[in-house]
């Protein structure tokens, strides 16, 4: 027996549904007609009816009725959109879309019960989504509308790119519609073609720009385009499109033309660097940063430009004539590019490194760089820093230290610095003791105690000598009379760059004071040995010329010895002077030259008159000497820079000094490693020593051979590339 | 000790003792024994050219073709034998004469080498350089193929190779002219190989 259990309510509803079970599509049409307001259709088809239909298993009928009606209706709408003329097309589409959304909202409300129960249990698409899908299939994806829509959108964007004003709000609504229909609809129906068209647009435009613009203008245009695209996205495209469209612009406008841009004649990167075009450089940096290899392209060009100009600078023979100017130019170049990197390149670390490595590269191309940098400091510490504040002194010294860091041959710098410092100290030419010390401290922090210990020793000697002289005069006070005053600086052997030279014959007056001092000094310091460095001293002598003109002459010790001879003679030949003084020939010639051949300082007269000193010249006391100064300083004709043979000698001394350092490094390494192959030794020695100099691999090899010979090392019997340490 | 016996040691005996000492594993003692042996060599009072006759005599009696270890030992012995007055190194003159004698037919660049050393080396030849030349002679051919600039060769050998490159460079220019005139294009690549 089949029993139907029904509730009274249910049966009552069935009855009431009976006459309405026929699906009436009119109510739905009503929904789509915005002129009819909500309450009206509620009369036609109150939600209760839908509820009842679903409850009584007519859900399927209700659902399929909805699909059919909506489809039919949308086809009608499609026709009206298609019929819209020209520019009205988008507006019509937009209006219909608005209506459709409203209708969809209502239908969803009415069919809420179906949406909640029938749709999930039967795996159907929800009403809202169904509405969107049907819109997509019947409107957007119909052949006529699809292409027309795309063309219209792309055309509008193109017009906007060309400078026209378009209705962005409408664009916004349309793209929003596409996004609402699903991201794939937006991407397939709009974004992909949009990107393609953009690519070809920018490819063409960039081609045109690059032909007629200079680099700076081009970059400005590219930047503007990029900003426009970003603005476009923010106004009427999906935010996710931003990365895609910018990458299109980046690729077409920047990446594709990068090489051509940086190398552009008369306006490329090098010109910008030369002319300090911070704005253009900064723009280039920010644009190139967006594309792969962009920054490395800038960096490479900058590096090769730096290396080239730096190289030109350091090997230019004209520059070598003036060491101070040479270093000043290097500093200016560094400042200039520091500023560029700071202002335009975002202080990029990799750019700083490129700058540093370039400087390191070309500074070391000229093996006189260490000497010149030391000469620059010498110049600054002698006179250049007069009247400069303490902070400014520090700035200058810090800059010098920065160049110093680039030097591979720091030991050569040390050698020269020592020589120059010695000259400064002994001639009393240092302007500021503080600045001198500050420089030493900087060198010490940079290279360690060993590097500066001798330099500091020189300062100590200077102080001690002062005390010694005070002691000497205190003890000799009664016996001194009005003989010459002696100021002795006692220099510790080894700390100073003294050249062993035989002392010349001092005048008797001086000699006696010297002997007194010797006796005094050795009396207080037993076991020491004093040697007079007559090649390094100076003297102040008073001279009376014709008509009783008195002058005080500031001369070197050698010059003093020569001049004193003229106390007892009016005329002396070169040979006689040489014999009497025993000054080495080259020094004597220079000293006579400065006494007799320099205008305004010619206290001696030479016969025959000429620029150079010959061995058969004769010298006279110049009675007619006049000068507007009471004190006359007679310099020695010396080259400030080293002469070729001197340079060669210093070089050799440096090389000799390096040998034990290299050997010590090898032994240190081998002591701890016991067995090591040749190339590893070379590498390790180089790392150990590079803070002072860059050892030459051949020299290292020679040192290894020497150590093998002296049986510190031996070659491994089986593998000849291995060395063993012999304890 | 037997080494100090008054009778004059002949070279065979010295060589036998030398090999014997070297075959010991104890480094320190063998060094001492070698020193003693070298003392007795001094007593022997070798005169200039006579040593080459001795070496030649020894060389012709030894079977040096069998294996290279035999020759190694002999080669090292030559250096030992050529030393004078207990010096560590031997003079360029002696080294060259000895090389010409013992490396004859064993080192394709022997002639060039000897000329180079004669011309460019002022200092004496160290034991390391002596020994390394044998290794060098074995690993390079006439074209210096097989030479590795990073191969830890003594500086003298590096200099020699550089010298050879330089001279072969100038020579190959001449060869190139010759080849061009023959229009033998196939030989062209081989020129660049010599660089």
UniProtKB/TrEMBL annotation, chain A:
<keyword id="KW-0832">Ubl conjugation</keyword>
<keyword id="KW-0833">Ubl conjugation pathway</keyword>
<protein>
    <submittedName>
        <fullName>Cullin-3A-like isoform X3</fullName>
    </submittedName>
</protein>
<dbReference type="InterPro" id="IPR016159">
    <property type="entry name" value="Cullin_repeat-like_dom_sf"/>
</dbReference>
<dbReference type="GO" id="GO:0031625">
    <property type="term" value="F:ubiquitin protein ligase binding"/>
</dbReference>
<feature type="domain" description="Cullin family profile">
    <location>
        <begin position="368"/>
        <end position="596"/>
    </location>
</feature>
<dbReference type="GO" id="GO:0006511">
    <property type="term" value="P:ubiquitin-dependent protein catabolic process"/>
</dbReference>
<dbReference type="InterPro" id="IPR036390">
    <property type="entry name" value="WH_DNA-bd_sf"/>
</dbReference>
<dbReference type="InterPro" id="IPR016158">
    <property type="entry name" value="Cullin_homology"/>
</dbReference>
<dbReference type="Pfam" id="PF26557">
    <property type="entry name" value="Cullin_AB"/>
</dbReference>
<comment type="similarity">
    <text>Belongs to the cullin family.</text>
</comment>
<dbReference type="InterPro" id="IPR059120">
    <property type="entry name" value="Cullin-like_AB"/>
</dbReference>
<dbReference type="Pfam" id="PF00888">
    <property type="entry name" value="Cullin"/>
</dbReference>
<keyword id="KW-1017">Isopeptide bond</keyword>
<dbReference type="InterPro" id="IPR001373">
    <property type="entry name" value="Cullin_N"/>
</dbReference>
<dbReference type="Pfam" id="PF10557">
    <property type="entry name" value="Cullin_Nedd8"/>
</dbReference>
<dbReference type="InterPro" id="IPR036388">
    <property type="entry name" value="WH-like_DNA-bd_sf"/>
</dbReference>
<dbReference type="InterPro" id="IPR036317">
    <property type="entry name" value="Cullin_homology_sf"/>
</dbReference>
<dbReference type="InterPro" id="IPR019559">
    <property type="entry name" value="Cullin_neddylation_domain"/>
</dbReference>
<dbReference type="InterPro" id="IPR045093">
    <property type="entry name" value="Cullin"/>
</dbReference>
């Amino acid at each position: 027996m089949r029993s139907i259990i029904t509730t009274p309510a249910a049966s009552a509803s069935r009855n009431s549904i009976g006459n309405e079970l026929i699906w009436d599509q009119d109510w739905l049409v009503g929904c789509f007609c915005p002129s009819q307001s909500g309450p009206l259709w509620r009369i036609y088809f109150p939600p209760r009816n839908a509820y009842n239909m679903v409850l009584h298993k007519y859900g399927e009928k209700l659902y399929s009725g909805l699909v059919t009606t909506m489809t039919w209706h949308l086809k009608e709408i499609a026709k009206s959109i298609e019929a819209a003329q020209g520019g009205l097309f988008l507006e019509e589409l937009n209006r219909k879309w608005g209506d459709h959304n409203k209708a969809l909202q209502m239908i969803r409300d009415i069919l809420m019960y179906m949406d909640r129960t029938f749709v999930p249990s039967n795996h159907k698409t929800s009403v809202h989504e169904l509405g969107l899908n049907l819109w997509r299939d019947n409107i957007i994806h119909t052949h006529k509308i699809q292409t027309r829509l795309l063309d219209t959108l792309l055309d509008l964007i193109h017009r906007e790119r060309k400078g026209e004003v378009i209705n962005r709000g409408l664009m916004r609504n349309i793209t929003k519609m596409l996004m609402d229909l699903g991201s794939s609809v937006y991407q397939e129906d709009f974004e992909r073609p949009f990107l393609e068209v953009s690519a070809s647009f920018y490819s063409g435009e960039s081609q045109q720009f690059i032909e007629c613009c200079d680099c700076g203008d081009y970059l400005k245009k590219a930047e503007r385009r990029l900003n426009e695209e970003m603005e476009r996205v923010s106004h009427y495209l999906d935010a996710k499109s931003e990365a895609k469209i910018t990458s299109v612009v980046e690729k077409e406008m920047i990446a594709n033309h990068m090489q051509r841009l940086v190398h552009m004649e008369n306006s490329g990167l090098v010109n910008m660097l030369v002319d300090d075009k911070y704005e253009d450089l900064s723009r280039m940096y920010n644009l190139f940063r967006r594309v792969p290899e962009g920054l490395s392209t800038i960096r490479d060009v900058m590096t090769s430009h730096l290396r080239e100009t730096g190289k030109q600078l350091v090997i230019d023979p004209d520059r070598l004539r003036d060491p101070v100017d040479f270093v000043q130019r290097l500093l200016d170049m560094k400042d200039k590019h520091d500023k560029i990197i700071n202002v335009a390149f975002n202080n990029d670390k990799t750019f700083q490194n490129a700058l540093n490595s370039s400087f390191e590269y070309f500074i070391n191309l000229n093996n006189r760089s260490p000497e010149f940098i030391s000469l620059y400091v010498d110049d600054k510490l002698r006179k250049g820093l007069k009247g400069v504040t303490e902070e400014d002194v520090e700035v200058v010294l810090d800059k010098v230290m920065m160049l110093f860091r680039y030097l591979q041959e720091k030991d050569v710098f040390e050698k020269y610095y020592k020589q120059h410092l010695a000259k400064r100290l002994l001639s009393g030419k240092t302007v500021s003791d503080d600045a001198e010390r500050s420089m030493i401290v900087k060198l010490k922090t940079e290279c360690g105690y060993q590097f500066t210990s001798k330099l500091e020793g020189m300062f100590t000697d200077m102080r001690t000598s002062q005390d010694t002289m005070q002691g000497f005069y205190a003890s000799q006070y009664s016996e001194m009379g009005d003989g010459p005053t002696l100021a002795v600086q006692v220099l510790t052997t080894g700390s100073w760059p003294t050249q062993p030279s035989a002392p010349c014959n001092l005048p008797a007056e001086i000699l006696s004071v010297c002997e007194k001092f010797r006796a005094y000094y050795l009396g207080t310091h037993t076991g020491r040995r004093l040697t007079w460095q007559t090649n390094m001293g100076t003297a102040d002598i008073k001279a009376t010329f014709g008509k009783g003109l008195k002058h005080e002459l500031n001369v070197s010790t050698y010059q003093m010895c020569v001049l004193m001879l003229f106390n007892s003679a009016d005329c002396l030949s070169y040979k006689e002077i040489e014999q009497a003084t025993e000054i080495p020939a080259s020094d004597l010639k220079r000293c006579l030259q400065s006494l007799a051949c320099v205008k305004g300082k010619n206290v001696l007269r030479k016969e025959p008159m000429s620029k150079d000193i010959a061995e058969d010249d004769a010298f006279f006391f110049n009675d007619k000497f006049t000068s507007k100064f009471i004190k006359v300083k007679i310099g020695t004709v010396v080259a400030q820079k080293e002469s070729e043979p001197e340079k060669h000698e210093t070089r050799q001394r440096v090389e000799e000094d390096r040998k034990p350092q290299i050997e010590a490094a090898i032994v240190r390494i081998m002591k701890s490693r016991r067995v090591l192959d040749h190339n590893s030794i070379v590498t390790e020695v180089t790392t150990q020593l590079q803070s002072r100099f860059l050892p030459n691999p051949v020299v290292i090899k020679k040192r290894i051979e020497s150590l093998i010979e002296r049986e510190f090392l031996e070659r491994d019997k089986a593998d000849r590339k291995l060395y063993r340490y012999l304890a | 000790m037997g080494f100090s016996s008054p009778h004059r040691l002949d070279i065979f005996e010295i060589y036998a003792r030398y090999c014997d000492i070297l075959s010991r594993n104890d480094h320190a003692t063998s060094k001492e024994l070698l020193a003693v042996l070298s003392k007795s060599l001094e007593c022997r009072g070798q005169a200039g050219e006579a040593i080459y006759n001795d070496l030649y005599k020894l060389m012709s009696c030894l079977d040096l073709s069998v294996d290279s270890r035999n020759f190694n030992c002999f080669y090292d012995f030559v250096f030992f034998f050529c030393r004078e007055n207990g010096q560590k190194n031997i003079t360029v003159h002696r080294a060259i004469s000895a090389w010409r004698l013992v490396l004859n037919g064993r080192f394709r660049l022997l002639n060039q080498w000897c000329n180079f050393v004669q011309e460019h080396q002022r200092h004496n030849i160290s034991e390391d350089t002596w020994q390394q030349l044998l290794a060098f002679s074995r690993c390079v051919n006439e074209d210096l193929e097989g030479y590795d600039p990073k191969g830890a060769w003594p500086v003298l050998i590096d200099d020699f190779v550089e010298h050879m490159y330089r001279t072969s460079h100038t020579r190959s220019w001449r060869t190139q002219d010759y080849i061009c005139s023959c229009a033998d294009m196939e030989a062209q690549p081989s020129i660049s190989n010599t660089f």
